[in-house]
Design a protein that fits this description.
Length: about 160
């Protein structure tokens, strides 16, 4: 594996762990506001991002790359509404998609086919991630100003399984 690809994968590992930390902070905020379903959904998202980072670490190790972990910045609690939280989540998922696409572009230009294969799986998963969050944002928008509707959305978020 070329050094520039290993370094880029290490940056992506940092992005995945940073995402996990963000989702954990958002989960705590939602729980503190009584949105237990949203907190549950975001906690599962935290775990998923950790799994992505660990998968990339395993991949680097299999390819004899050097794993370098970056510091994870703090995500200070910021009180957000349910709608703001999931709009922020959607923006964040789009940023993750852009980062994966950039890494995939590098692997294509360097003809690293194994890394391309791995990252194509991540790119496909991001389509699903963005779609899922877009649906949540849309459901919340339909319920704006309707507390009962928001509580039903929250209950539905609590049904998410790993």
């Amino acid at each position: 594996m070329k050094d520039n690809i290993a370094e880029a994968i290490c940056r992506q590992i940092g992005i995945e762990f940073d995402s996990a930390y963000l989702y954990l902070a958002l989960s705590a905020d939602m729980a503190s506001q009584g949105y237990r379903g949203a907190a549950h959904w975001l906690r599962l998202q935290y775990r998923e991002e950790c799994e992505h980072a660990l998968h990339l670490i395993d991949y680097l190790e299999q390819r004899s790359g050097t794993v370098r972990l970056s510091a994870i910045p703090a995500h200070l609690p910021e009180r957000r509404s349910l709608a703001e939280t999931f709009r922020h989540t959607l923006e964040h998922e789009r940023a993750i998609t852009a980062a994966i696409n950039k890494l995939l572009d590098l692997c294509v230009s360097e003809q690293d086919y194994a890394s391309q294969h791995l990252l194509l799986e991540y790119a496909a998963e991001q389509v699903q991630e963005e779609n899922a969050v877009t649906e949540i944002v849309d459901y919340i928008a339909l319920c704006e100003g309707n507390t009962g509707g928001l509580m039903r959305v929250d209950a539905r978020l609590g049904e998410r399984r790993e």
